[in-house]
Each structure stands twice: as structure tokens, then as C-alpha cells.
Amino acid sequence: MESCTNRERVMEKLVMGRDWAAQLQILLRKPTGLDGPGTADELAVKILRSFTETLSALNSGDVDQIDSGESRQTQATTARRGCRKRSRKTSDSRVNVSASMEDGYGWRKYGQKGILNSKFPRSYYRCTHKHDQCCKATKQVQTIQEDPPMYQTTYFGHHTCKHHKLVASQAISDSHPLQGSHNNLLSFESKSPISSPKLEKPYKEEAQESVVWPDLMPLDVTSGVCSSKLTSFCGLDMDFLVESVDLESCFCFDEMEFL
DNA sequence: TACATTTGACCAAA
DNA sequence: TTTGGTCAAATGTA
After folding, report:
1. Which three-class secondary structure string do you get for chain A?
2. pLDDT (tens digit, 9 = 90+) per residue, A185-219?
3. A110 has pLDDT over 70
4. What are the boundaries of each domain within chain A?
5. CATH superfamily of this structure's domain A90-252
6. Which nucleotide's C1' is closest to A83 (Cα)?
7. Looking at the predicted structure, is the pLDDT value of residue A129 above 70?
8. In this structure, is the CB of residue A30 within 7 Å of any atom belonging to strand B?
9. Which residue has better confidence, A35 or A95?
């Protein structure tokens, strides 16, 4: 019951943020038009506050639901083949529609299934480092369009494998412009912070993608770690990005849909 | 030889 | 009962 109220608050804040962002966009296109609902600066503050309050609401409310879902899955796991208690993975997922399946991570395919009412089978991937580093990240990839091929990738869990984080963090510290004097930017433009040769190609391919967030992001504002839906940012998981860049200081969206 | 992919079986959730 | 997620043996590839 409380989570329902909390969800309503979250939705309200997100909608407000979207509206203010739209107003800000209009203002930025007409720099002299300051007789609207507020200056660009004021709108930026409102937007930041809206997102901050949303993050706080999520942090205080829905986390329990997410945790209970994961623990259910863990507790009921048995040793028999194929006998894994599965919860329907509706929480902690990020959906990414892209022309490419590349995202800079190492994945290993562990299954493929034909899906009802879908022309194309769904492929199941887990992180390459599942066993050596207990990385629990998985993803499902489904072709949604034949020509040109478009893929809907749904990510579950988050990468805990150290190797990739190291590479990505290095790439960020090498070239991320937001770590300098522009820490309080709210940007709706695509950024290209990755200069590492290893990550350059996946990022370029991901640059054309669109992002859909069907549910709300679980996060921990106080610790600065965001289990974010911003997966498409640079084609990298946001966990380590937010560890390096203050969550409330830098929002950087390419394309987004709130509802 | 080591690692990745394919594929059918198994089983829980709906 | 149906559907979808995962396992693991078989197979492929570098």
C-alpha cells in the first residue's frame, strides 16, 4: 500500500521533470524568450530537484520489493538440473532497443527459446565472468525487426566483474569531460566519453539506439551507487559511472521516454 | 585444448 | 496446461 503511494509520487515527479525539461528545451532554443514560466537556470534547478526527489522516493520505498524478489529466487534454488526457482524478472531490468547487440561487455549465450507471438527466438546471455567473479549480470536479446535488424535487449542484474569496470573507469577518467569544471551540467545531448580503443566500436554502434525504461530504477542515492536504467549511456552499465560521477551532479540523457 | 554456441530437457510461475 | 528461464551435453571453432 505504501509502495503504491510511493509509486504515484515517483510518477508525478517524473512527469513534472519531463514537463520542465520540455520548457527548458524551448527556452534554450529561444535564448531571448525569458518571459515564460521561468529562466533556463530556474528550470534546470526544478528539474534537478524533481529527479533528486524521485531518486529519494525510490530509495525509501520500492527497494524492499526488489530485495524480496531476489531473495526468493536465491532461497529456493536447488541442485537439480533445471530446477531453479525463477521469479518473473519484472524488477531491476533495463530495456534497450538498438541496431546492435554490442554493449562493451563480454557475454556468453546459455540458451535460446522461441517466444509466443514472436517471429524471432529470444537469446539468453550471462556475463562471461559469472563463474570466476560471480558476476550475476544477464541479458535477453530478441530481434524485433527483420530488415534492418533491430534488437531489444533486456538487462537483468548488474556487472560486478572487476575487469570491465577497470577498463571503463579508465576510459572515463581519461576522457570524460564532466569530471572537470562542468560538474553541474544537465545535458540532453549524446556524449562520447569513451576513447579507449577497446570500447570505441561498441559505443559508436550504441549511439543510434533508443532507450525504454518500463519500470523504475532501483538505486541508492546515499551511497552514490545507482542501479540505473541509464544502461545505454556510452553503451556501458551505469553502476561504475555513477560511482565516479556524482549522481545529482550530472544527468546525461540521449533519448528518453518516461511513460 | 579451451572456450563458445546450440539444443533439448527440466521445471517454476502464471 | 502453457510459457518462459536455465541447465548441461553435444557440437563447433580458433
Report:
1. CHHHHHHHHHHHHHHHHHHHHHHHHHHHHCCCCCCCCCCHHHHHHHHHHHHHHHHHHHHHCCHHHHHHHHHHHHHCCCCCCCCCCCCCCCCCEEEEEECCCCCCCCEEEEEEECCCCCCCCEEEEEECCCCCCCCCCEEEEEEEECCCCEEEEEEECCCCCHHHHHHHHHHHHHHCHHHCCCCCCEECCCCCCCCCHHHHHHHHHHCCCEEECCCCCCEECCCCEECCCHHHHHHCCHHHHHHHCCCCCCEECCCCCCC
2. 333 333 333 333 333 333 333 334 444 443 333 33
3. yes
4. 2-65, 90-252
5. WRKY domain (2.20.25.80)
6. B11
7. yes
8. no
9. A95
